[in-house]
């Protein structure tokens, strides 16, 4: 696991999710369980969007052939960071949307008198998938402590949701199987739609924080903590070199940070070689820190504040 990259984790997750999805749809049809079918469709949606996330991750980290990379750079001269929040936001919307649709279906089934299913097959499916989901969530969470990827973090959330959903299904199926032949048996048709409705109520709001952050990135909303940090570094630079002031423009786009800094230099400033101005830029860049591969940093010097506003 220590050798796993972001792409490696996502590839493993995609493969396992597709297996779980197809198994869920098959078991759901065989057992007559709408909740298992929903589990499979939810997993299939997750796997599809994780595949898109893998493609975007590959673009961002430039894991392409030199020829393909050169061709893409000509079309995306500002990089691929903007694709990350788009994919994360779309994934969150699709997952919540699938859960909302399943909730409506579950309520309709309850009002129609429920549905009968084979609790034996359903219990086997839920037990196996629960083990897989818990194992993948733990594996990917540990890997992401080193990787620090938003895509992997969302994937961990997806496996965690899947584990919670499947765990609830397992409890419900065990209960439904246990009440067969008892006075509670008339309730068994309602077990499947009832647990599906409850699970959907839990699942629907879970992607909302991811959607909110993705929208903030897409709209280039300035993170206050990031702006405060850049302002502090810029003011220290002004004090050190005697600049009149600065203007800072910052945004977080996925894993990328876009920073533009303009320093107002007094008129009549003594001439300096370009190498000296570059040395100041290097100093500011080092103070800002962070991964230079995921940072778009522009630093300019002017005597006219209009160029900075």
User: How many independent structural domains?
Assistant: 2
CATH fold naming of the largest domain: Alpha-lytic protease prodomain-like
Distance between the termini: 48 Å
The CATH homology group name of the largest domain:
Cation efflux protein transmembrane domain
Under the CATH scheme, which architecture of the largest domain would be assigned?
A: Up-down Bundle
- The order of strands across the largest sheet is 1-2-3
The number of E-state strands comes to: 3
What is the number of helical segments per DSSP (H or I, 4+ residues)? 10
What's the rounded overall pLDDT mean? 83
Order of helices and strands: HHHHHHHHHEEHE
What is the CATH first-level class name of the largest domain?
Mainly Alpha
Strand content: 5-15%
Helix content: 55-70%
Q: Runs with pLDDT <50, length 5+?
A: none
């Amino acid at each position: 696991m220590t050798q796993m990259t972001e792409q490696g984790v996502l590839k493993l997750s995609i493969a396992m999710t597709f297996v779980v999805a197809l198994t869920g749809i098959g078991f759901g049809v065989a057992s007559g369980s709408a909740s298992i079918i929903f589990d499979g469709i939810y997993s299939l949606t997750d796997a599809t969007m994780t595949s898109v996330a893998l493609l975007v991750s590959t673009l961002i980290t430039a894991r392409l052939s030199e020829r393909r990379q050169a061709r893409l750079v000509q079309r995306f001269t500002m990089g691929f960071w903007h694709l990350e929040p788009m994919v994360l936001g779309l994934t969150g919307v699709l997952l919540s949307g699938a859960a909302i649709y399943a909730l409506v279906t579950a309520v309709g089934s309850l009002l129609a008198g429920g549905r009968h299913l084979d609790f034996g097959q359903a219990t086997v499916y839920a037990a196996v998938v629960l083990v897989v989901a818990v194992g993948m969530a733990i594996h990917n969470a540990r890997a992401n402590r080193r990787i620090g990827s938003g895509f992997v973090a969302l994937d961990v959330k997806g496996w965690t949701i899947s584990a919670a959903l499947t765990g609830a299904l397992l409890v419900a199926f065990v209960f439904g199987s246990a009440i067969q032949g008892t006075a509670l048996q008339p309730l068994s048709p309602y077990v499947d739609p009832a647990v599906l409705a409850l699970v959907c109520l839990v699942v629907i709001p879970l992607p909302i924080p991811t959607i909110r952050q993705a929208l903030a990135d897409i709209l280039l909303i300035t993170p206050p903590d990031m702006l405060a940090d850049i302002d502090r570094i810029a003011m220290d630079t002004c004090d050190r070199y005697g600049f009149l002031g600065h203007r800072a423009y910052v945004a977080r786009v996925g894993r990328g940070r876009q920073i533009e800094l303009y320093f107002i230099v007094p008129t009549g400033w003594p001439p300096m070689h370009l190498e000296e101005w570059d040395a100041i830029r290097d100093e500011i860049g080092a103070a800002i820190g962070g991964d230079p591969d995921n940072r778009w940093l522009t630093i300019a010097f002017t005597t006219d504040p209009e160029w900075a506003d």
